[in-house]
Amino acid sequence: AKSKLWGGRFEANTSELMEQFNASLPFDINLMEYDIKGSLAHVKMLGKQNILSEAEVEKITEGLNRVKNNLEAELKAGNFDFNEAEDIHSLVEARLTAEIGEIGGKLHTGRSRNDQVAVDLRLYLRDQTEQIMDLTINFMQIILDLAEEHIKTVMPGYTHLQRAQALTFGHHLLAYYFKLKRDYERFQDALKRINVSPLGAGALAGSSFNLDRDFTAKELGFDRACENSMDGVSDRDFVLEFLAVASNLMLHLSRLSEEIILWNSKEFSFIELADQYTTGSSIMPQKKNPDLAELVRGKTGRVIGSLNQLMYTIKGLPLAYNKDLQEDKEGLFDSVKTVKIILELYPEMLKTMTVKEKAMKKAAATGFLNATELADYLAANEIPFRQAHQIVGEAVLFASKKEKELDQLQQQDWDEILGEYLDIDAEELKEKLSVEAAVNSHSTKGGPAFEESKRVINKEKEFLTDK
Ligand code: ARG
Protein backbone atom coordinates (compact mmCIF):
# COMPACT_ATOMS: atom_id res chain seq x y z
CA ALA A 1 0.00 0.00 0.00
CA LYS A 2 1.05 3.58 -0.67
CA SER A 3 1.95 5.74 2.29
CA LYS A 4 -0.88 8.09 3.27
CA LEU A 5 -1.41 11.08 5.54
CA TRP A 6 -4.71 9.77 6.91
CA GLY A 7 -6.28 6.52 8.07
CA GLY A 8 -7.49 6.87 11.68
CA ARG A 9 -11.18 6.88 10.89
CA PHE A 10 -10.97 3.98 8.43
CA GLU A 11 -11.56 0.32 9.26
CA ALA A 12 -10.82 -1.23 5.88
CA ASN A 13 -7.92 -0.63 3.52
CA THR A 14 -8.37 1.35 0.35
CA SER A 15 -8.98 -0.87 -2.66
CA GLU A 16 -5.82 -1.26 -4.67
CA LEU A 17 -7.42 -0.06 -7.87
CA MET A 18 -8.82 2.94 -6.01
CA GLU A 19 -5.35 3.72 -4.67
CA GLN A 20 -4.00 3.68 -8.18
CA PHE A 21 -6.83 5.87 -9.46
CA ASN A 22 -6.45 8.33 -6.59
CA ALA A 23 -2.67 8.71 -6.77
CA SER A 24 -1.00 11.80 -8.19
CA LEU A 25 2.64 11.05 -7.34
CA PRO A 26 3.52 9.87 -10.87
CA PHE A 27 3.00 13.44 -12.06
CA ASP A 28 3.11 15.72 -9.00
CA ILE A 29 6.66 14.52 -8.37
CA ASN A 30 7.31 17.48 -10.69
CA LEU A 31 6.44 19.69 -7.73
CA MET A 32 9.00 18.12 -5.38
CA GLU A 33 11.44 21.02 -5.05
CA TYR A 34 8.58 23.52 -4.70
CA ASP A 35 6.82 21.39 -2.10
CA ILE A 36 9.96 21.31 0.02
CA LYS A 37 10.58 24.99 -0.48
CA GLY A 38 7.05 25.71 0.77
CA SER A 39 7.56 23.43 3.78
CA LEU A 40 10.83 25.11 4.68
CA ALA A 41 9.13 28.51 4.76
CA HIS A 42 6.19 27.13 6.74
CA VAL A 43 8.37 25.54 9.41
CA LYS A 44 10.51 28.67 9.71
CA MET A 45 7.36 30.66 10.36
CA LEU A 46 6.11 28.09 12.92
CA GLY A 47 9.38 28.66 14.79
CA LYS A 48 9.20 32.44 14.60
CA GLN A 49 5.66 32.31 16.01
CA ASN A 50 6.77 29.97 18.83
CA ILE A 51 4.41 27.29 17.59
CA LEU A 52 7.39 24.95 17.27
CA SER A 53 10.61 25.12 19.29
CA GLU A 54 13.89 26.25 17.78
CA ALA A 55 15.27 22.72 18.07
CA GLU A 56 12.25 21.26 16.29
CA VAL A 57 12.54 23.76 13.47
CA GLU A 58 16.21 22.99 13.07
CA LYS A 59 15.62 19.27 12.98
CA ILE A 60 12.75 19.49 10.49
CA THR A 61 14.68 21.91 8.27
CA GLU A 62 17.69 19.70 8.17
CA GLY A 63 15.50 16.65 7.54
CA LEU A 64 13.68 18.33 4.67
CA ASN A 65 16.99 19.18 3.00
CA ARG A 66 18.12 15.57 3.32
CA VAL A 67 14.81 14.33 1.85
CA LYS A 68 15.29 16.67 -1.07
CA ASN A 69 18.83 15.49 -1.76
CA ASN A 70 17.80 11.84 -1.54
CA LEU A 71 14.84 12.29 -3.87
CA GLU A 72 16.93 14.20 -6.38
CA ALA A 73 19.51 11.44 -6.38
CA GLU A 74 16.88 8.70 -6.82
CA LEU A 75 15.17 10.54 -9.63
CA LYS A 76 18.49 11.08 -11.35
CA ALA A 77 19.54 7.47 -10.93
CA GLY A 78 16.15 6.30 -12.17
CA ASN A 79 15.40 4.15 -9.12
CA PHE A 80 12.62 6.26 -7.66
CA ASP A 81 9.46 4.29 -6.86
CA PHE A 82 6.46 6.21 -8.19
CA ASN A 83 4.13 3.97 -6.17
CA GLU A 84 5.65 4.85 -2.83
CA ALA A 85 3.00 7.33 -1.71
CA GLU A 86 -0.37 8.84 -2.57
CA ASP A 87 1.04 12.18 -3.64
CA ILE A 88 4.13 14.39 -3.34
CA HIS A 89 2.96 15.83 -0.02
CA SER A 90 2.49 12.41 1.57
CA LEU A 91 5.80 11.29 0.16
CA VAL A 92 7.80 14.18 1.62
CA GLU A 93 6.21 13.87 5.04
CA ALA A 94 6.73 10.10 5.15
CA ARG A 95 10.35 10.49 4.09
CA LEU A 96 10.85 13.26 6.66
CA THR A 97 9.49 11.12 9.46
CA ALA A 98 11.69 8.25 8.32
CA GLU A 99 14.69 10.59 8.51
CA ILE A 100 14.03 12.39 11.82
CA GLY A 101 11.35 10.37 13.60
CA GLU A 102 7.87 11.27 14.90
CA ILE A 103 8.78 14.94 15.22
CA GLY A 104 8.51 15.13 11.42
CA GLY A 105 4.76 14.94 11.97
CA LYS A 106 4.87 18.47 13.42
CA LEU A 107 5.62 19.99 10.03
CA HIS A 108 1.97 19.89 9.02
CA THR A 109 0.86 22.00 12.01
CA GLY A 110 -1.58 24.67 10.85
CA ARG A 111 -1.44 23.46 7.27
CA SER A 112 -3.55 21.39 4.89
CA ARG A 113 -2.64 19.73 1.63
CA ASN A 114 -5.16 22.09 0.11
CA ASP A 115 -3.15 25.24 0.74
CA GLN A 116 0.09 23.25 0.32
CA VAL A 117 -0.70 22.08 -3.21
CA ALA A 118 -1.83 25.57 -4.20
CA VAL A 119 1.49 26.99 -2.95
CA ASP A 120 3.46 24.32 -4.81
CA LEU A 121 1.66 24.95 -8.05
CA ARG A 122 2.16 28.70 -7.82
CA LEU A 123 5.86 28.39 -7.06
CA TYR A 124 6.22 25.94 -9.95
CA LEU A 125 4.31 28.15 -12.36
CA ARG A 126 6.17 31.30 -11.37
CA ASP A 127 9.45 29.56 -12.06
CA GLN A 128 8.29 28.09 -15.36
CA THR A 129 6.70 31.34 -16.52
CA GLU A 130 9.95 33.19 -15.89
CA GLN A 131 11.88 30.56 -17.87
CA ILE A 132 9.37 30.75 -20.72
CA MET A 133 9.60 34.54 -20.74
CA ASP A 134 13.39 34.32 -21.09
CA LEU A 135 13.02 31.86 -23.96
CA THR A 136 10.47 34.16 -25.58
CA ILE A 137 12.85 37.11 -25.37
CA ASN A 138 15.60 35.01 -26.93
CA PHE A 139 13.24 34.02 -29.75
CA MET A 140 12.23 37.65 -30.29
CA GLN A 141 15.91 38.58 -30.55
CA ILE A 142 16.48 35.94 -33.24
CA ILE A 143 13.46 37.15 -35.21
CA LEU A 144 14.60 40.75 -34.93
CA ASP A 145 18.09 39.85 -36.19
CA LEU A 146 16.59 37.95 -39.13
CA ALA A 147 14.25 40.85 -39.88
CA GLU A 148 17.21 43.21 -39.98
CA GLU A 149 19.12 40.89 -42.28
CA HIS A 150 16.13 40.82 -44.63
CA ILE A 151 15.04 44.40 -44.33
CA LYS A 152 15.48 44.76 -48.12
CA THR A 153 14.51 41.23 -49.22
CA VAL A 154 11.35 41.87 -51.21
CA MET A 155 8.62 39.25 -51.27
CA PRO A 156 4.94 39.10 -52.07
CA GLY A 157 2.51 39.90 -49.30
CA TYR A 158 -0.75 37.93 -49.37
CA THR A 159 -4.39 38.33 -48.56
CA HIS A 160 -6.68 35.33 -49.18
CA LEU A 161 -3.38 33.58 -49.99
CA GLN A 162 -3.42 35.55 -53.26
CA ARG A 163 -0.53 37.85 -54.08
CA ALA A 164 -1.57 41.26 -52.82
CA GLN A 165 1.18 43.87 -52.45
CA ALA A 166 4.95 43.67 -52.34
CA LEU A 167 6.68 43.98 -48.99
CA THR A 168 9.83 42.54 -47.44
CA PHE A 169 10.64 39.33 -45.65
CA GLY A 170 11.95 41.51 -42.84
CA HIS A 171 8.59 43.24 -42.56
CA HIS A 172 6.80 39.89 -42.53
CA LEU A 173 9.06 38.62 -39.72
CA LEU A 174 8.49 41.80 -37.72
CA ALA A 175 4.78 40.98 -37.66
CA TYR A 176 5.64 37.83 -35.71
CA TYR A 177 8.06 39.72 -33.50
CA PHE A 178 5.21 41.89 -32.28
CA LYS A 179 2.88 38.95 -31.77
CA LEU A 180 5.51 37.33 -29.55
CA LYS A 181 6.13 40.59 -27.74
CA ARG A 182 2.48 40.71 -26.74
CA ASP A 183 2.68 37.13 -25.49
CA TYR A 184 5.72 38.09 -23.45
CA GLU A 185 3.76 40.97 -21.93
CA ARG A 186 0.82 38.67 -21.24
CA PHE A 187 3.06 36.27 -19.32
CA GLN A 188 4.43 39.23 -17.41
CA ASP A 189 0.91 40.27 -16.50
CA ALA A 190 -0.16 36.73 -15.59
CA LEU A 191 2.76 36.59 -13.13
CA LYS A 192 1.08 39.24 -11.00
CA ARG A 193 -1.77 36.86 -10.29
CA ILE A 194 0.37 33.72 -10.11
CA ASN A 195 2.64 35.26 -7.51
CA VAL A 196 0.21 35.40 -4.58
CA SER A 197 0.50 33.17 -1.51
CA PRO A 198 -2.33 30.86 -0.40
CA LEU A 199 -0.19 29.41 2.41
CA GLY A 200 -2.06 29.61 5.70
CA ALA A 201 -5.45 29.30 4.04
CA GLY A 202 -5.50 25.82 5.58
CA ALA A 203 -8.08 23.33 4.38
CA LEU A 204 -10.42 26.21 3.59
CA ALA A 205 -10.97 28.22 6.78
CA GLY A 206 -7.53 29.40 7.82
CA SER A 207 -6.19 28.29 11.19
CA SER A 208 -6.53 28.81 14.92
CA PHE A 209 -2.74 28.81 15.18
CA ASN A 210 -1.18 32.25 15.14
CA LEU A 211 0.27 31.86 11.63
CA ASP A 212 2.11 34.78 10.05
CA ARG A 213 0.92 34.54 6.47
CA ASP A 214 2.71 37.70 5.38
CA PHE A 215 5.98 36.24 6.61
CA THR A 216 5.68 33.03 4.58
CA ALA A 217 4.50 35.00 1.55
CA LYS A 218 7.61 37.17 1.76
CA GLU A 219 9.88 34.23 2.51
CA LEU A 220 8.69 32.49 -0.66
CA GLY A 221 9.07 35.58 -2.82
CA PHE A 222 5.33 36.10 -3.29
CA ASP A 223 4.10 39.66 -3.81
CA ARG A 224 1.49 39.22 -1.09
CA ALA A 225 -0.76 36.73 0.71
CA CYS A 226 -4.27 36.14 -0.64
CA GLU A 227 -7.09 37.86 1.26
CA ASN A 228 -9.61 35.02 1.46
CA SER A 229 -8.84 31.49 2.62
CA MET A 230 -11.59 29.87 0.54
CA ASP A 231 -10.42 31.67 -2.57
CA GLY A 232 -6.85 30.69 -1.76
CA VAL A 233 -7.53 26.96 -1.92
CA SER A 234 -10.13 26.95 -4.71
CA ASP A 235 -8.58 29.41 -7.15
CA ARG A 236 -7.06 27.91 -10.27
CA ASP A 237 -7.59 30.81 -12.61
CA PHE A 238 -3.88 31.57 -12.40
CA VAL A 239 -3.39 28.23 -14.19
CA LEU A 240 -6.13 28.99 -16.70
CA GLU A 241 -4.56 32.37 -17.39
CA PHE A 242 -1.16 30.83 -18.00
CA LEU A 243 -2.68 28.22 -20.33
CA ALA A 244 -4.59 30.92 -22.19
CA VAL A 245 -1.40 32.90 -22.77
CA ALA A 246 0.48 29.73 -23.72
CA SER A 247 -2.31 28.84 -26.16
CA ASN A 248 -2.10 32.27 -27.69
CA LEU A 249 1.65 31.92 -28.10
CA MET A 250 1.15 28.51 -29.69
CA LEU A 251 -1.45 29.96 -32.07
CA HIS A 252 1.14 32.47 -33.22
CA LEU A 253 3.75 29.79 -33.75
CA SER A 254 1.20 27.60 -35.48
CA ARG A 255 0.45 30.35 -37.99
CA LEU A 256 4.15 30.91 -38.57
CA SER A 257 4.56 27.15 -39.00
CA GLU A 258 1.84 27.06 -41.62
CA GLU A 259 3.72 29.77 -43.54
CA ILE A 260 7.05 27.99 -43.12
CA ILE A 261 5.48 24.81 -44.49
CA LEU A 262 4.05 26.68 -47.48
CA TRP A 263 7.27 28.61 -48.16
CA ASN A 264 9.30 25.41 -47.93
CA SER A 265 7.12 23.66 -50.54
CA LYS A 266 8.27 23.36 -54.14
CA GLU A 267 5.27 25.45 -55.12
CA PHE A 268 6.54 28.49 -53.21
CA SER A 269 10.24 27.67 -52.83
CA PHE A 270 10.86 30.81 -50.76
CA ILE A 271 12.95 29.00 -48.14
CA GLU A 272 14.68 25.71 -47.62
CA LEU A 273 14.78 24.25 -44.14
CA ALA A 274 18.06 22.79 -42.94
CA ASP A 275 18.63 19.03 -42.67
CA GLN A 276 18.88 19.23 -38.88
CA TYR A 277 15.25 20.31 -38.55
CA THR A 278 13.61 18.15 -41.21
CA THR A 279 12.98 14.42 -41.63
CA GLY A 280 12.79 11.96 -44.52
CA SER A 281 10.27 9.47 -45.83
CA SER A 282 10.53 5.70 -45.43
CA ILE A 283 9.35 5.18 -48.99
CA MET A 284 9.95 8.33 -51.05
CA PRO A 285 13.69 8.87 -51.20
CA GLN A 286 13.44 12.47 -52.42
CA LYS A 287 11.45 13.73 -49.43
CA LYS A 288 12.62 16.25 -46.86
CA ASN A 289 9.68 17.07 -44.67
CA PRO A 290 9.10 20.11 -42.42
CA ASP A 291 8.18 17.98 -39.40
CA LEU A 292 9.21 20.49 -36.78
CA ALA A 293 6.83 23.12 -38.14
CA GLU A 294 4.12 20.50 -38.57
CA LEU A 295 4.53 19.26 -35.01
CA VAL A 296 4.31 22.79 -33.68
CA ARG A 297 1.08 23.23 -35.62
CA GLY A 298 -0.13 19.88 -34.27
CA LYS A 299 0.90 20.40 -30.65
CA THR A 300 -0.92 23.72 -30.62
CA GLY A 301 -4.11 21.67 -30.46
CA ARG A 302 -2.83 19.90 -27.38
CA VAL A 303 -2.05 23.10 -25.48
CA ILE A 304 -5.42 24.59 -26.38
CA GLY A 305 -6.91 21.25 -25.31
CA SER A 306 -5.33 21.54 -21.86
CA LEU A 307 -6.81 25.00 -21.43
CA ASN A 308 -10.23 23.69 -22.39
CA GLN A 309 -9.91 20.59 -20.21
CA LEU A 310 -9.21 22.65 -17.11
CA MET A 311 -12.03 25.06 -17.85
CA TYR A 312 -14.41 22.10 -18.09
CA THR A 313 -12.97 20.63 -14.89
CA ILE A 314 -13.50 23.81 -12.90
CA LYS A 315 -16.82 24.83 -14.36
CA GLY A 316 -19.17 23.15 -11.87
CA LEU A 317 -17.02 23.00 -8.74
CA PRO A 318 -18.50 24.26 -5.47
CA LEU A 319 -16.08 25.95 -3.05
CA ALA A 320 -13.63 25.12 -1.75
CA TYR A 321 -11.28 22.19 -2.54
CA ASN A 322 -12.57 19.20 -4.50
CA LYS A 323 -10.45 16.32 -5.71
CA ASP A 324 -11.33 17.31 -9.28
CA LEU A 325 -8.68 19.98 -8.81
CA GLN A 326 -5.99 17.31 -8.92
CA GLU A 327 -6.75 17.34 -12.67
CA ASP A 328 -5.14 20.79 -12.91
CA LYS A 329 -1.64 19.36 -13.24
CA GLU A 330 -1.05 16.97 -16.12
CA GLY A 331 -2.28 19.31 -18.85
CA LEU A 332 -0.29 22.16 -17.34
CA PHE A 333 2.94 20.15 -17.05
CA ASP A 334 2.49 18.88 -20.58
CA SER A 335 1.91 22.39 -21.91
CA VAL A 336 4.92 23.82 -20.09
CA LYS A 337 7.13 21.07 -21.49
CA THR A 338 5.76 21.57 -25.00
CA VAL A 339 6.13 25.34 -25.00
CA LYS A 340 9.68 25.20 -23.64
CA ILE A 341 11.04 22.71 -26.15
CA ILE A 342 9.40 24.58 -29.01
CA LEU A 343 10.82 27.90 -27.87
CA GLU A 344 14.25 26.28 -27.88
CA LEU A 345 13.97 24.54 -31.23
CA TYR A 346 12.12 27.09 -33.30
CA PRO A 347 14.80 29.82 -33.34
CA GLU A 348 17.33 27.18 -34.45
CA MET A 349 15.12 26.21 -37.36
CA LEU A 350 14.78 29.85 -38.41
CA LYS A 351 18.49 30.57 -38.06
CA THR A 352 19.50 27.60 -40.22
CA MET A 353 16.98 27.91 -43.04
CA THR A 354 18.06 29.21 -46.44
CA VAL A 355 16.12 32.23 -47.64
CA LYS A 356 15.77 32.16 -51.42
CA GLU A 357 15.78 35.87 -52.10
CA LYS A 358 15.66 35.54 -55.88
CA ALA A 359 12.53 33.41 -55.84
CA MET A 360 10.86 35.78 -53.39
CA LYS A 361 11.68 38.75 -55.58
CA LYS A 362 10.51 37.03 -58.73
CA ALA A 363 7.20 36.20 -57.08
CA ALA A 364 6.84 39.79 -55.91
CA ALA A 365 7.43 41.08 -59.44
CA THR A 366 4.79 38.91 -61.08
CA GLY A 367 1.05 38.81 -60.52
CA PHE A 368 0.29 42.56 -60.63
CA LEU A 369 1.23 43.29 -57.02
CA ASN A 370 1.84 46.88 -58.15
CA ALA A 371 -1.73 47.43 -59.37
CA THR A 372 -2.57 49.36 -56.20
CA GLU A 373 0.56 51.43 -56.80
CA LEU A 374 -0.74 52.46 -60.20
CA ALA A 375 -4.20 53.23 -58.82
CA ASP A 376 -2.59 55.36 -56.09
CA TYR A 377 -0.54 57.16 -58.76
CA LEU A 378 -3.67 58.02 -60.72
CA ALA A 379 -5.45 59.08 -57.55
CA ALA A 380 -2.52 61.35 -56.68
CA ASN A 381 -3.09 62.89 -60.12
CA GLU A 382 -6.64 64.00 -59.36
CA ILE A 383 -8.49 60.91 -60.64
CA PRO A 384 -10.93 59.82 -57.89
CA PHE A 385 -9.63 56.58 -56.40
CA ARG A 386 -12.76 54.56 -57.22
CA GLN A 387 -12.41 55.53 -60.90
CA ALA A 388 -8.66 54.88 -60.79
CA HIS A 389 -9.43 51.40 -59.42
CA GLN A 390 -11.68 50.70 -62.43
CA ILE A 391 -9.10 52.01 -64.92
CA VAL A 392 -6.27 49.98 -63.42
CA GLY A 393 -8.49 46.90 -63.45
CA GLU A 394 -8.80 47.39 -67.18
CA ALA A 395 -5.04 47.94 -67.47
CA VAL A 396 -4.44 44.62 -65.65
CA LEU A 397 -6.80 42.88 -68.07
CA PHE A 398 -5.01 44.51 -70.99
CA ALA A 399 -1.56 43.47 -69.73
CA SER A 400 -2.56 39.93 -68.81
CA LYS A 401 -3.97 39.41 -72.29
CA LYS A 402 -0.56 40.41 -73.61
CA GLU A 403 1.10 38.19 -70.96
CA LYS A 404 2.97 41.15 -69.55
CA GLU A 405 3.37 42.78 -66.15
CA LEU A 406 2.35 46.42 -65.69
CA ASP A 407 5.94 47.64 -65.60
CA GLN A 408 6.61 45.93 -68.93
CA LEU A 409 4.04 48.00 -70.82
CA GLN A 410 5.33 50.43 -73.44
CA GLN A 411 4.50 54.08 -74.03
CA GLN A 412 1.99 53.22 -76.73
CA ASP A 413 0.23 50.77 -74.40
CA TRP A 414 -0.14 53.45 -71.75
CA ASP A 415 -1.36 55.96 -74.30
CA GLU A 416 -3.99 53.46 -75.34
CA ILE A 417 -5.14 52.60 -71.81
CA LEU A 418 -4.75 55.91 -70.02
CA GLY A 419 -4.59 58.46 -72.85
CA GLU A 420 -8.06 59.87 -72.19
CA TYR A 421 -7.33 60.48 -68.47
CA LEU A 422 -3.67 61.37 -68.10
CA ASP A 423 -0.42 61.98 -69.99
CA ILE A 424 1.90 59.19 -68.98
CA ASP A 425 5.66 59.07 -69.19
CA ALA A 426 6.22 55.32 -69.56
CA GLU A 427 9.80 55.48 -68.25
CA GLU A 428 8.83 57.38 -65.12
CA LEU A 429 5.91 55.05 -64.48
CA LYS A 430 8.05 51.95 -65.00
CA GLU A 431 10.36 53.21 -62.26
CA LYS A 432 7.45 53.91 -59.89
CA LEU A 433 6.00 50.47 -60.48
CA SER A 434 9.22 48.58 -59.75
CA VAL A 435 9.05 46.30 -56.74
CA GLU A 436 11.65 48.21 -54.74
CA ALA A 437 10.06 51.58 -55.42
CA ALA A 438 6.64 50.22 -54.53
CA VAL A 439 7.87 48.81 -51.21
CA ASN A 440 9.84 51.91 -50.28
CA SER A 441 6.99 54.26 -51.10
CA HIS A 442 4.99 52.50 -48.35
CA SER A 443 6.63 54.51 -45.64
CA THR A 444 3.63 55.08 -43.41
CA LYS A 445 4.22 54.31 -39.74
CA GLY A 446 4.57 50.53 -39.44
CA GLY A 447 4.87 50.13 -43.21
CA PRO A 448 7.41 47.98 -45.09
CA ALA A 449 9.61 50.82 -46.42
CA PHE A 450 13.29 50.31 -45.63
CA GLU A 451 13.69 53.44 -43.47
CA GLU A 452 10.53 52.72 -41.52
CA SER A 453 11.47 49.08 -40.86
CA LYS A 454 14.86 50.31 -39.72
CA ARG A 455 13.29 52.74 -37.26
CA VAL A 456 11.11 49.99 -35.83
CA ILE A 457 13.99 47.52 -35.56
CA ASN A 458 16.18 50.04 -33.75
CA LYS A 459 13.43 50.82 -31.29
CA GLU A 460 12.86 47.13 -30.54
CA LYS A 461 16.60 46.52 -30.18
CA GLU A 462 16.44 49.01 -27.37
CA PHE A 463 13.49 47.23 -25.80
CA LEU A 464 15.43 43.98 -25.83
CA THR A 465 18.65 45.36 -24.37
CA ASP A 466 17.26 45.70 -20.86
CA LYS A 467 15.51 42.32 -20.93
N1 ARG B 1 -2.92 15.47 -4.80
C1 ARG B 1 -3.82 16.48 -4.42
C2 ARG B 1 -4.05 17.46 -5.57
O1 ARG B 1 -3.27 17.43 -6.44
C3 ARG B 1 -3.30 17.23 -3.24
C4 ARG B 1 -4.34 17.86 -2.39
C5 ARG B 1 -5.13 16.81 -1.73
N2 ARG B 1 -6.08 17.38 -0.81
C6 ARG B 1 -7.04 16.64 -0.30
N3 ARG B 1 -7.86 17.23 0.49
N4 ARG B 1 -7.20 15.38 -0.61
O2 ARG B 1 -4.98 18.22 -5.59
Automatic annotation (TrEMBL):
Pathway: Amino-acid biosynthesis; L-arginine biosynthesis; L-arginine from L-ornithine and carbamoyl phosphate: step 3/3. It is found in: Cytoplasm. It holds the Pfam family Lyase_1. Keywords: Amino-acid biosynthesis, Arginine biosynthesis, Cytoplasm, Lyase. GO terms for cellular component: cytosol. Residues 8-305 form the Fumarate lyase N-terminal domain. This is Argininosuccinate lyase. It comes from Halanaerobium saccharolyticum subsp. saccharolyticum DSM 6643.
